[in-house]
Amino acid sequence: MALLEVRNVGKSFGTLRALDGIDIAVQAGTFHGLIGPNGSGKSTLLKAIAGAHFPNSGSITFDGRDITTATPYERARAGLSLKFQITAVLPELSAYDNVLLALQSDQSLWSLLSSRTRRRLNGEVMTALERFRLADRADDLAGELSHGQQQWLEIAMALAPRPKLLLLDEPTGGMSPEERRVTGELLQPIRSHCALVIVEHDLDFIKDICDHLTVLDQGKVLDDGTVAEIERSTRVQEVYTSRV
Ligand code: ADP
Ligand code: MG
Hints:
With 244 residues, the protein is α/β, with parallel strands linked by helices. The protein has a domain at 4-88 and 162-239: 3-Layer(aba) Sandwich (Rossmann fold), CATH 3.40.50.300. The chain has nine helices and ten strands. The chain has a six-stranded mixed sheet with strand order 6-7-8-3-9-10, sandwiched between helices. Strand 9 and strand 10 form a beta hairpin. The radius of gyration is 18 Å and the shape is globular. Bound molecules: adenosine-5'-diphosphate (ADP) and magnesium ion. The site of adenosine-5'-diphosphate has 11 residues, from strand 2 and helix 1.
């Protein structure tokens, strides 16, 4: 059974059919890319998976559980994590405290935690920062990091609770080509314990890091397959040459 199964999911905004009978399956340990023209429904699909809104029809199963109407909190507890298109680090807090908040969202409990728990959390925060080359910036305010480093900090925050599936919506937006290349490199090691569903504008980047691609067009799945299969798809080439 796939880690994530989206079955016949529909979502309308008024009369606009943003998602129209979407089926996708994401296997554990795979990097799954969502591509398609602007407005094709990529962000809407990620939000339905994350629980930011509920679909009007269809079902979503994660790790053997029906999560179609589960709250975002319940999904996070089940092992789903996400980073949206818009940066959401808290600029007035240090990089360290941003990750700590992702792990221990109720800071009022901090004084009640045992020193052992605090040491464990400290280890997890530093591991998350190291993974994204931010250990030496731990004490710096998140707002003082470069745009690319803020994006990495957000991915580090999303990964800190050790999810089974990470959802990323255009994580390399605004990055330099070099930062983009490094992002791909830094994501690779998570494959051993976490699957990825990623939306990206940069086709070369997504083809480079993903195993599997789903192509959306006007709220429907236009094509789905391995990167090599999608590269050969004439339907996809037509849509990309005419509309992207
Ligand atoms: P993509 O991420 O592929 O660019 P989106 O999923 O953001 O596309 O949007 C799909 C369609 O749904 C677009 O036509 C968009 O304008 C519309 N849409 C998305 N979110 C909303 C919303 N909250 N209210 C109304 N329309 C929306
Ligand atoms: Mg989008």
